[in-house]
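Exercise: predict the fold of this chain.
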Amino acid sequence: MAHTQPKFVAYYRVSTKRQGASGLGIAAQRSAVAAYLNGTSGVIAAEFTEMESGRRSDRPALEQALTTARIHQAALVVAKVDRLTRSVGFLSKLLEAGVDVRFSDMPAIEGPTGRFMLQQMAAVAELEAGLISSRTKAALAAAKARGTKLGGNRGVRLTNAARAKGRAEQSSRAQSRAGDLAPLLLQLRSNGIASANAMAAALTARDIPTARGGRKWSAVQVRRIIARIDGWERMVLPAP
């Protein structure tokens, strides 16, 4: 099997139009990202630049970068943590976006800053697990004190619930990916690439991975994506 180079989507941000116009801030960020990728043998699939304040969370370029990263199953690479955000809440939302985020100033999540981030995430997860465990034990103890019979076949119900939850999560991921791919499929259709076979060939040629990471698309996979896009037949490209 041929070795596939890891893909990255680069995101650069400058706080002022002057920084963006001069290119100095962007140049430094590009150099930092290039140095990081040099140690990973990775390639940049796309680059996005934003001129926004770090305090704002409505960043269209970042949204585009995240969508592109999901489509290519690539990691988002940022020169420095503070280029992305100083808001813990916003970082939490970013971590839920389903994209692996790398920072050039924290290779392999090393150093005191990286360890601190990991410790904070681990501490939150540990606290949540501890609270759930405590509430569960307290509820069972109270039920037992009331004379409620514990045991039985609750495990079967939990297993069924877990399966249902897994199916729901899988469906949600499929729906999200269909939304990410919709603009690209719509663009292909507007260029005369309308059949499922032709679209599958186009996606394969663009090296866009399938949901399972494969590199070759089939017409069946394309039809499944289209079936999840609401109003596909009525969709038209916006005027340029």
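Check your answer against the key: Residues 165-234 form one domain.
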